[in-house]
Write a structure and sequence with these properties.
By secondary structure, the chain is α+β, with helices and mostly antiparallel strands. 34% of the residues lie in helices and 32% in strands. The chain has 2 domains: 140 residues, Rossmann fold, CATH 3.40.50; 161 residues, Tumour Suppressor Smad4, CATH 2.60.200.40. The structure holds adenosine-5'-triphosphate. Belongs to the diacylglycerol/lipid kinase family.
């Protein structure tokens, strides 16, 4: 039995449209399923836990939504054996990108039903679990601005979710002020002046495909960190096109770090986000929880033997 977790509102209504497509495919293929429409980010974990407790033969929990919807159910799936499948229906869809899950619904459904599993790490920060990245500073402020904006709804409505982030970057560039930050990676502290952002990544991209930590791998037990510091506004603006291809990492105002735990303390309050959802403005302590989540991904077939394989259903 497959559990489909649907956020009708994700991607400005793409969640519901995608579910209708997927439901027709499931009926045509006579795949056994149950559909769970989640009401909100806060109640989703409880709804999923309740559904999972009702039977023992779940083969997968397949989310139809964006990164925020996936974020809302991580607590229910962590170390539970039931693998996470993803049918992307958000504006950013960086979880799908990070696991090479196709963006088209039918191909994503095929991936979810193939039962090839990757053991992925989770990030633990601010009392929450995150799958893609915990970002603080400029880009968290971009997300806070975009999520509360009219242009996100408008862009989603015309199928241009990525455009909303580009508008958000320009909007935030005008108002944001960099400040000093201390970053402690596996006990080693470093300080950076005029810091714009600190991103702690499990997957290579966020913000709709921006490759902020291109070397990040979800199953390596390590956090990849990108610190942008000492750049002028013009340099920061010129950095964004390079992030699309992940070519920013060698720039003089970019420092890349890697470790198992990372503490981030800005000199002034700065927003943080996990999977694009707000984590508050307190200093951050981010810890890697190795192999805490099974993910249905085409990467599993190509990954190192012993860390991946067929999923075993469990309750
Ligand atoms: N499980 C859920 N059920 C209902 N609403 C949710 C759930 N999880 C999050 N939400 C709300 O729905 C909004 C949109 O969901 P989601 O983040 O998945 O899509 P998106 O913002 O369009 O895409 P992305 O996160 O990939 O950019 C979230 O910002 C949050 O307010």
């Amino acid at each position: 039995m497959y559990l489909f977790i649907i956020n009708s509102r994700s991607g400005g209504g793409a969640g519901l449209r995608t579910w209708h497509t997927v439901q027709a495919l499931l009926e045509a293929r006579t795949v056994p399923y149950e559909a769970l429409f989640t009401r909100s980010a806060d109640s989703a974990e409880g709804q999923v836990l309740q559904a999972l407790a009702l039977r023992e033969d779940w083969r997968a929990a397949i989310v139809i939504g964006g990164d925020g919807t996936i974020h809302s159910v991580l607590g229910a799936l962590r170390r539970r054996g039931v693998p996470l499948g993803v049918i992307p229906a958000g504006s950013g869809n960086d979880t799908a990108r990070g696991f090479s899950i196709p963006l088209a619904p039918e191909a994503a459904l095929d991936t979810a039903l193939q039962e090839r599993c990757l053991e992925a790490d989770l990030l633990s920060a601010a009392g929450r679990l995150t799958l893609t990245a915990v970002a603080s500073g400029f880009d968290a402020q971009v997300a806070v601005n975009v999520n509360g904006s009219r242009y996100k709804r408008l862009c989603n409505a015309i199928g241009a979710g990525r455009l909303a982030y580009i508008i958000g970057i320009l909007h935030t560039l005008i108002t944001f002020k960099p400040c000093r930050v201390s970053v402690t990676c596996d006990g080693k502290e470093q300080s950076f002046d005029q810091a714009w952002l600190v991103s702690v990544c499990n997957l290579p991209s966020y913000g709709g495909g921006l490759l902020i930590c291109p070397q990040a791998e979800p199953g390596d037990g390590l956090l990849d960190v990108c610190v942008v510091h000492g750049a002028s506004r013009v340099q920061l603006l010129r950095l964004f096109p390079t992030v699309v291809k992940g070519r920013h990492t060698k720039l003089p105002y970019v420092t890349m770090l890697r470790g198992r735990s990372v503490a981030v303390r800005f000199a002034q309050p700065r927003h943080a986000i996990g999977d694009g959802e707000a984590l508050g403005t307190a200093p951050l302590s981010v810890r890697c929880e190795p192999e805490a989540l099974r993910v249905l991904s085409p990467l599993a077939a190509a990954a190192v033997a012993g860390t991946t394989g067929s999923c075993h259903a469990s309750g």
